Amino acid sequence: MNNTLKQHAQNLHLSGLLESLELRLQEAEANRLPYPQFLELLFQDAINVRHQRLITRRHKLADFRETRSLENFDWACGMVVGVIVLVGFALFIFTAMAAGH
Length: 101
Prior knowledge:
Strand content: under 5%
Radius of gyration: 27 Å
Largest sheet: none
Structural class: mainly alpha
Helix content: over 70%
Number of strands: 0
Distance between the termini: 80 Å
């Protein structure tokens, strides 16, 4: 890859494309990819890099205390809250009926 190509990509704000360009060039030569398919792979790489950077930026802005996964989430907790709300609603209706409303 030459410096002119790098400079053009930077001027067009396609730094994500630069990260995978060398690998994609080698892949295209080895597999004799048609130009449209080669460009599609490059563009998809650039989109993926931008998406990942966006997620990273949003994660940083959210300022989470710690990163957690759904693997350790207590799914039964939501059911308990639902039951409590349902019992409270039933109690409200019972009280309203007893008061004659």
